[in-house]
Amino acid sequence: MNDLVVCPECAHEWVPSEGVVADAPGERVIKDAVGNVLNDGDTVTVVKALKVKGNPSGIKAGTKVRNIRLVDGVDGHDIDCRIDGFGAMQLKSSVVKKA
């Protein structure tokens, strides 16, 4: 429909380019909580405390995460990483700040 794309099952309408920031076609730019561009291999700091299922303490604000990898994750989880004491997990870019 004109400039909108419509889902045939639920009739949800959206603009195809909405929500994607790109420098070149096919390339996504992922930004942290304060607007810095993130790259593979960066070190980031968690800016707010996060609850982790199965762990009573969770991840504290200020925890450094080294050597991140940017992925097309599920439900906004676009950072794949390994956190000491917790193991491999995915984080949202909105809860980290580039160190």
Automatic annotation (TrEMBL):
<protein>
    <submittedName>
        <fullName>Protein PhnA</fullName>
    </submittedName>
</protein>
<feature type="domain" description="Protein YjdM C-terminal">
    <location>
        <begin position="30"/>
        <end position="99"/>
    </location>
</feature>
<dbReference type="Pfam" id="PF03831">
    <property type="entry name" value="YjdM"/>
</dbReference>
<dbReference type="InterPro" id="IPR004624">
    <property type="entry name" value="YjdM"/>
</dbReference>
<dbReference type="InterPro" id="IPR013988">
    <property type="entry name" value="YjdM_C"/>
</dbReference>
